[in-house]
Amino acid sequence: MTELRRDMVRDSWVLIANGKALKPSDFPIYKSMICSRLGEEICPFCEGNEALTTGELDAFRTPGSLANQEGWLVRAIPNKFAMFKMNKEILEYHSSGIYSRCNGLGQHEVVIETPQHGIQLHELPADQIILLIKMLQKRFKVLASDTRIKYIQIYKNKGLFAGASQDHSHSQILAYPMVPDRNKGVPKYFEEHRRCLMCQIIEEESGKDRIIYESDHFIILSPYAPRFSYEAWIIPKEHQRYFADINDEEIKDLQAVLKGYLASMLACLDNPSYNIMINSAPVNLHKQDGYHWYIEIIPRLVISNAVEIASGYFINPVDPETAAEIIRNELLIEF
Ligand SMILES: [Zn+2]
Ligand SMILES: [Zn+2]
């Protein structure tokens, strides 16, 4: 059973996979060393191996093909090692002495981006990336229709140092019963200024050297205070709360921006592991003003050190103005 435990010292929550423990050899770093010595394990995400995954939630398929069989283009399944499950009616808080915890109510899904092994997100054809974006939107809307869910995080871990345990290109969706603490600055800014912080950032950055690229609907930005070297944000220029609401024209634009930026960033930085996070407004809550969805792309070039873990303050050896200039000079986005 997975549960959320309150970390009283840091005033935050931790997701704990209670009652099971990975053996040292099951952790991704060791597993990848063993696999590279013995050859690849059978991949459950490859076309033809549908029986090795949990049952399909949704898929875009070729006409006439059946669920949980070959013939899919993009496929959504429950995460086999889900951090959250919809197995309780309500969120139940328990306390024991000074400690408190609650059940892991929520949903954890995997969206397999392609039936093909060995091809990465930025290498997929434009139409395939558009299908992926549409599937992420579809799943977001389904999850948001359950009022027990308060926040939906779409994310991608690519490569060992980004936390990926499967090499086959995939994204994930984690639907939480609460809004993660990390987004605190956004509603606080709205309370104080009655303005959307992200709209204000777009205005402030206009014409400045941290802008990497601007398309019809999006800007790519090196943020003012990036936690990671070469961290970049893709922000819709128009105020929008939810990624799930963007229309076909915006999806087409986003596809080109995402594919082009990723390919350029990977070429520029010698193919590092990376994370992508799509941050939207909370769902099923009254207070949603001031949220403006955006994508974070973070190459994982260094491993967190003691100061960062102790203080929570990240140390970034590359200033964002230089990072923006370096990527901008190598950038190739095709429409
Ligand atoms: Zn595969
Ligand atoms: Zn805004």
In CATH's first tier, which class applies? Alpha Beta
Secondary structure class reads alpha+beta
Proportion of residues in helical segments: 25-40%
CATH homologous superfamily identity? HIT-like
Terminus-to-terminus distance: 46 Å
| Series of secondary-structure elements, N-terminal to C-terminal | EEHEEEEEHEEHHEEEHEEHH
Radius of gyration, taken over Cα atoms and rounded to an integer in Å = 20 Å
Architecture (CATH level 2) name: 2-Layer Sandwich
What spatial form do the alpha-carbon principal axes imply?
Answer: globular
The strand order across the widest sheet is 3-4-7-9-8-13-14-12-11-10
Fraction of residues in β-strands: 15-25%
Query: How many DSSP H or I helices?
Result: 7
Whole-number average pLDDT? Answer: 92
Your description of this structure?
This protein has 335 residues and is of the alpha+beta class. It has a single domain, classed as 2-Layer Sandwich (HIT family, subunit A). It has 7 helices and 14 strands. The strands form 2 sheets. A 10-stranded antiparallel β-sheet has the order 3-4-7-9-8-13-14-12-11-10, sandwiched between helices. Strands 2-1-6-5 form a 4-stranded antiparallel β-sheet, with no helix packed on it. A hairpin with a 2-residue loop joins strand 5 (93-96) and strand 6 (99-103). Helix 2 (126-144) crosses helix 5. The longest helix has 21 residues, at 248-268. It is globular and about 50 Å long. Bound molecules: zinc ion (2 copies). One zinc ion binds at residues 43, 45-46, 117, 168.
